[in-house]
Amino acid sequence: MVLTGRLSAGGSWVADHVVLGSVLLPGTAFVELAVRAGDEVGCGRLEELTLQAPLVLPKRAAVQVQVVVGGQDAAGARSVSVYSRAEDGSGAWVRHASGSVTPVGEPTAGFDLRQWPRPAPNRWRWRGRMRRSRVADTAMDRRSAG
């Protein structure tokens, strides 16, 4: 599946993401593009995304964007890649990010989520250690200063 669109820096929050004088698409926007594309094919969990090249947005023009989602593998995962090129269609497509999306399953946690907030084990002893640590640090500072 290929999703297409157009991005520009003009009049949007993206225009504030300036690095060394150039407006760059933030990494979080690549995440949003990949997750949205995954949602379209029933794979709303982003397993991995590697940024490969910055996407520089021109000041007065836009860029064409493609998000390509590959076929499903044996485990249900799909590849996802984000490409761009100049709005006028000149130039080659540049891959900016690639990764994989998977179907959303049951959340896994190392503890029972029904008990929230989790009890803090040994809360009192932890606070005591912090106090002793500060006292010890203060005592050491006084010794080294004199």
Automatic annotation (TrEMBL):
Residues 1-146 form the PKS/mFAS DH domain. The keyword Transferase applies. This is PKS/mFAS DH domain-containing protein. Signal peptide: none annotated. GO terms for biological process: fatty acid biosynthetic process. Keywords: Multifunctional enzyme, Transferase. It comes from Streptomyces haneummycinicus. It holds the Pfam family PKS_DH_N. GO terms for molecular function: fatty acid synthase activity. The keyword Transferase applies. Residues 1-108 are annotated as: N-terminal hotdog fold. Gene3D superfamilies: Polyketide synthase dehydratase. Residues 123-146 are annotated as: C-terminal hotdog fold.
